[in-house]
Amino acid sequence: MSQQDRPGLLAVFAHPDDEAATTGGTLAHYARRGFRVGLVCATRGEVGEISDQALASPANLGEIRERELRAAATVLGVEDVTLLGYRDSGMAGTDDNQHPNALCNAPADDVVGALVGIIRRSKPSVVITFDPSGGYGHPDHVAIHHHTVEAFAAASDASRFTDRGEPWSPSRLFYTVFTKGMFLAMRERLQRFGADASEMDQWESVANLYDDDEVHLGMDISAVADAKWDALNSHRTQFGDNNIFSRIPVEEAKAALSRESFVLARPTPAPGTRLADLFDGI
Ligand SMILES: [Zn+2]
Question: 110: domain CATH number?
Answer without folding.
Answer: 3.40.50.10320
